[in-house]
Specification:
The structure is a single chain. Strands 1-3-2 form a three-stranded antiparallel sheet. Strands 4-6-5 form a three-stranded antiparallel sheet. α3 (53-59) packs across α4 and α8 (148-171) crosses α10 (187-199). The longest helix is centred in the middle third of the chain and has 24 residues, at 148-171. Helix content is 54%, strand content 6%. The chain is mostly helical and 332 residues long.
Length: 332
């Protein structure tokens, strides 16, 4: 197995996914922390596998002292990961109603002027800002509601709930401090999300009087058609795929067998608009989803009547997905 080529290909596909998520539907998600986060998470996981720091440093091509200093710097850094120049400009204008280009440049004089200008142009083209006039005297303002910064905060709060839920569920039970560390969220935002999820019955809390209570979840479900929770569903699916591959690698069995209970398969169907089997192929996602959901409901009903002791609990994650790459003549 050529591990290096496989890792390089996985990194490439993952960066494509991150790039598309970061710009989806006009979003400009913060990316400045990604490189540091990848390094820190990789180093932690490598050391968790029993690899010493000296060997881990060598794997990154670093001297041990340099490696230790980098881990310490990233761990101790206190950057605002959720704030981008894009959002800062919107919040600046939302608090003032409008401002001239000259005043905006003065307010963001620590940032690259070209970057600020690009952000302003991007926000105008996205319809989030309006502009009147030309040159330094041109005036920019928020197109929609004046309290856009509050709206952004509310959207962030709503988006946090399903992410917290799925991470707690997949962890099998997790302490608040570990959850805070893993998600890199502001403590007040995490605590609010935990309170809401517990009140809704989606999470259970142990040791209520403890400063570091433990949270757990018996289920995680994002219904088809739900407006909230799409991000968590993507994360859950991605984790299931990555876990299956990692489990396969750890077992040392790279070949598939007819009796496998861990693994996956990818089949690509070549079709055309008049292909006789095209309807059946395109319908398979709906059919498989319906069948698996029915089985999940049956198992859940049984488990509610016959609770499974924690020490004997097994978890089987089944994932499936479907994508369609249109023919060149049909592509938009």
């Amino acid at each position: 197995m050529n591990t290096r080529l496989l890792i390089d290909a996985l990194v490439q596909q993952t960066t494509i996914l991150i790039a598309r998520l970061s710009t989806a539907a006009g979003i400009r998600a913060p990316l400045a922390h990604v490189a540091d986060q990848v390094f820190l998470e990789l180093s932690r996981e490598i050391e968790a596998q029993g690899i010493g720091r000296k060997v881990a440093a060598d794997m990154f091509g670093l001297a041990l002292r340099t490696y230790q200093k980098k881990v310490r710097r990233i761990t101790e850094s206190a950057t605002d990961r959720d704030r981008t120049l894009w959002q800062a400009v919107i919040e600046h204008l939302a608090s003032r109603g409008s401002a001239s280009r000259r005043d905006i440049m003065k307010a963001f004089d620590r940032d690259d002027p070209m970057a600020v200008g690009s952000v302003l142009s991007d926000l105008v083209s996205s319809g989030l800002l309006y502009r009147t006039g030309v040159g330094d005297g041109s005036v920019f303002g928020v197109t929609a509601e004046r309290d856009l910064s509050t709206t952004l905060s509310e959207q962030q709060r709503e988006g946090v709930l399903p992410i917290v839920w799925v991470v707690v569920f997949r962890s099998g039970g997790i302490r608040r401090q570990e959850l805070l560390h893993r998600l890199n969220l502001p403590a007040d935002l995490l605590d609010e999300a935990l309170e809401i999820l517990c009140a809704q019955g989606q999470l259970a809390r142990e040791a209520v009087g403890d400063d570091d209570p433990r949270y757990s979840a018996d289920t995680f479900l994002v219904p088809v058609g739900a407006e909230q929770g799409w991000e968590a569903a993507v994360l859950d699916h991605f984790q299931a795929v990555a876990r299956a591959i990692a489990c396969k690698v750890e077992r040392g069995r790279t070949q598939s067998a007819s009796d496998d209970v861990v693994g996956g398969a990818t089949l690509s169907f070549h079709l055309h608009a008049q292909h006789p089997h095209r309807p059946a192929v395109l319908d398979q996602l709906r059919r498989v989803r319906a069948e698996v959901n029915q089985l999940w409901d049956t198992v859940q009903e049984y488990n509610e009547l016959h609770p499974i002791p924690e020490e004997s609990r097994e978890e089987v994650s089944f994932y499936f997905g479907q994508s369609v790459t249109l023919a060149a003549e049909d592509a938009p």
